[in-house]
Amino acid sequence: MNNPLLASTPELPLWAQESVNLADERLGARALACSDDFFAPMQRMLNPAAAQFFPGRYDEHGKWMDGWESRRRRQGGNDWCVVQLACPGVLSGVDIDTSFFTGNYPPAAALEGCPAGADPLQASSWQVLLPVTALSGNAHHLLPLQGTGQPFSHVRLQIFPDGGVARLRVYGQPRQGGLPPNEEGLYELSALIGGARALAWNDAHFGRPDKLLLPGRGLDMGDGWETRRRREPGYDWCVIKLGVPGVPVLVEVDTVHFKGNFPDRCSLQGAWLPDAASAALPAQSQFWPTLLPEQPLSADFIHKFRLEGASAVTHLRFNLHPDGGVSRLRVWGLPENLS
């Protein structure tokens, strides 16, 4: 079998950079139903990893494709797929990715949404978010949505008339009424599903820092933030905007799977900057107050650090001394309105 090819990664517009992909299966998004997925299953479309193409791979239905693909439609009409988002959210845009679908991509697509609290089984619940739009093969289609300001819990992708879509990414701001507290009464301020996101970093050679904010423990060494080997003085860092501003109390740094490449130490800084411009944060963050001074780390372990006397923050700077990989960062605390 030939080596697989990997789809390109597009440069995201600002509305996507400042949003969470609510159609990410790692966060809990699910494909509920579709008109047909004979060639490739609908759930595969929600894989957050870049699509792959295996030139020599076939299965009992034909060519193996990394995405959702329906059979050739002969009786009129069009195909569709209903996706339950990871949580309700105010939607800003979509990426309809047809990577590696060349002679079998749909010429057009549309997207509808079902508002949170409405019944997706009722036809009257669905609203047009993206009118019928032309698609091309083997391409990312990053398209802003018609915003209403209300949160949606489900989307329905319509393709005309049939074909394959490698990935569906639905960008938005989570609106789920807050995550439940843990047994100590602390809230996960840094959860991606709660709206947190990585805004800037100096290096992400082996893995992007937004993986730090995913639920659960890392699946393997590729499921975390890892920088290249540093050959010059200094250390690596990333800036994170919390989903819920608040007072941090407990920090968890999980180095699961990172055994010969975990950081020697880590530290944490923070600031209250509710109106900060993202472009200014990398420079500003160097001078933020220290929340957690340098702490030694070990391989393949969950480290827990208590913070004493911290003030409320909206942003964090997570530092790796001097470099390496971390699977998850969790910051537990009290939301500003409860502190």
UniProtKB/TrEMBL annotation:
Hydrolase as a keyword of this entry, yes or no, is: yes
Please give the pathway this protein is involved in.
Nitrogen metabolism; (S)-allantoin degradation; (S)-ureidoglycolate from allantoate (aminidohydrolase route): step 1/1
One Pfam family per UniProt: Allantoicase
Per its record, the protein catalyses:
allantoate + H2O = (S)-ureidoglycolate + urea
* EC supergroup of this enzyme: hydrolase
Q: Which UniProt keywords apply?
A: Hydrolase, Purine metabolism
Asked whether the UniProt record includes Nuclease among its keywords, one would answer no
What terms describe the molecular function in GO for this protein?
A: allantoicase activity
Bilayer-crossing regions: none
Q: Where is the Allantoicase domain?
A: 28-174, 195-334
An example GO BP is:
purine nucleobase metabolic process
Give the Enzyme Commission number: 3.5.3.4
Family as reported in the entry's similarity comment: Belongs to the allantoicase family.
Name the UniProt record assigns to this protein: Probable allantoicase
